[in-house]
Amino acid sequence: MRAISLATPTLPPATHTSAYLVGPDDGPGELWIVDPATPYPDQQAVLRAALDAEADAGRRVAGVLLTHHHGDHVGAATMVAAHTGAPIAAHPLTAARLAGRGIEVAWPLEDEAQVGPLTCVWTPGHAPGHLCFLDRATGAMIVGDMVAGVGTILVDPDDGDMTSYLASLARMRALGPTALLPAHGPMIGAAVAKLDEYVAHRLMREARVAAALGAPASIRALVAIAYADTPAPLWPLAARSLEAHLVKLERDGRARRIGDDWALA
Ligand SMILES: [Zn+2]
């Protein structure tokens, strides 16, 4: 397995997305590419050259796998599919979101589908159709935007769901991955410890959000309390995560919505 880091229009501080190539390092064989991400022509040329070198060595791309539908993960999917003849494969919920953007998913992947050496693990939370890909031979897991090697993961209530996100992190942990391969940043070796850290961090934030609730208050006011430890320029993004926490707290019977404001249940 190897990563090709390509510049993408992603969320700072990240600037690049890693496309992962899964297949033999030497000799001929099948190759699977996960998240051919970049929409930039010069970066697509880098990717094409890398795939041509693989083809010269007898390694043929058998599938273009997508973790989820976000633009910084799918930018070169159509180009790679056209260049190699390989089908684009993704979860049906991802396929539905890409249909209107001219990206055609020819191969729907359900939870636990086996794709070459990889097993699909459906992990909704950051995006509804998010898939992780577990390499059965090594136990390494390609984790897309479930975990980040640089920056943090946004759970935006438009696309994401905090209840699902926490459940998906727990499921990933239960599979005991040996390493996490994120879309942004380097490989994470201490996989289970990192997943525990992610869950603990979200529950810490949830506790702060719950503690900030009282009389009806706006999200803007709640961010200043619950994210007091976060630099103010990040508060607009933090407000999205805060709302995802509030939706979960409402579902758990601990918060209630009053117009645009939120209060203790
Ligand atoms: Zn994403």
Enumerate the strands of the largest sheet in spatial order, edge to edge or round the barrel: 1-2-3-4-5-6
Determine and state the CATH class of the largest domain: Alpha Beta
| Number of structurally distinct domains | 2
Query: Can you tell me the CATH topology of the largest domain?
Result: Metallo-beta-lactamase, Chain A
Overall pLDDT level: 96
Task: Specify the overall morphology.
Answer: elongated
Unreliable segments of 5+ consecutive residues: none
**What percent of the residues sit in helical stretches (DSSP H or I)?**
25-40%
Mind summarizing the main beta sheet?
Answer: 6 strands, mixed
> What ligands does this structure carry?
zinc ion
CATH architecture group name of the largest domain: 4-Layer Sandwich
**SSE order, as H and E?**
EEEHEHHEHEEEEEHEHHHEE
Number of distinct helices: 8
CATH H level, superfamily name of the largest domain: Ribonuclease Z/Hydroxyacylglutathione hydrolase-like
Descriptive report:
The protein is 36% helix and 23% strand. It is α/β, with parallel strands linked by helices and 265 residues long. It folds into two domains: 2-190, Ribonuclease Z/Hydroxyacylglutathione hydrolase-like (Metallo-beta-lactamase, Chain A), CATH 3.60.15.10; 213-264, Arc Repressor Mutant, subunit A (Orthogonal Bundle), CATH 1.10.10.10. Strands 1-2-3-4-5-6 form a six-stranded mixed sheet. It has a five-stranded mixed sheet with strand order 7-8-9-10-11, with no helix packed on it. Helix 5 runs antiparallel to helix 6 (191-212) and helix 6 (191-212) packs across helix 7. The mean pLDDT is 96. It binds zinc ion.
